[in-house]
Write a structure and sequence with these properties.
272 residues; alpha+beta; 6-stranded antiparallel β-sheet
Amino acid sequence: MKREIRTVVYDEDLQIEAYRFEGFVRPFPGHFHEYYVIGYIESGQRTLTCKNQEYAVRPGHILIFNPGDSHACVQSDDGTLDYRGFNISRDVMLSLLGELDDKQAPPVFSQNVIFDSETASCLRTLHDLVLSGSREGDKRENLLLLTALLVQKYGQPLPCCIPRYSEEIQRVCRFIQQNHSKHICLDQLCSCAGLSRSTLLRAFTRLKGVTPYRYLENVRVGQAKKLLEQGVPPIEAALQTGFSDQSHFTNYFDRFLGLSPGAYRNIFSRKK
């Protein structure tokens, strides 16, 4: 039988806990928490009981528990539970809402079990960043985006669907392209678009497929490629395109292109 593995990480930057359970067969008896729990089922099927309702949860399901929601679960197949999730305190949730829409009341989520591929993708991306100990700038953007998706889709009262702000997002993209070598913060992008943080993050990610920060890094790498092709040394290319240091630049460049800046530059040096 697969060995049970439990991984717990506290992210000091975000002030949230990330959990990873692998190979679990044990049941979880009825209990509740003082914080919000947002989880994702990777594998295994379970019978979940929450607030006098019973659910059959399976891979792909997102679980959301408000503070005080009593719940219990037990394995319902011959497999094991693989689960990832976050624990978010009331204070941190209020702080996130303040960053998004200046709301002061803590949210109450209307559903405990949902199937939502958009939200699941954001949750898994953020979870990987936290467990890997990443210090990347888009980690907080992903947390804000996850919060915005959950609150706008499943908070009470349920809001109307967000419009697709294509013109505003194109304006933000132009701003990023023109200022990629400078420090750019989320507030600047919100001011440029005339949108709230919540709306900007959701609209931008839906239209572009990445967060604003990830889009900025793509633009920087693209501009750095042009400099390297001209023979500019990697350290100069890093500084001219807004990367904080050469190590940061090299990590991103290798991730996007599969080779180091120096190796890429050498391709064009040999051509010359």
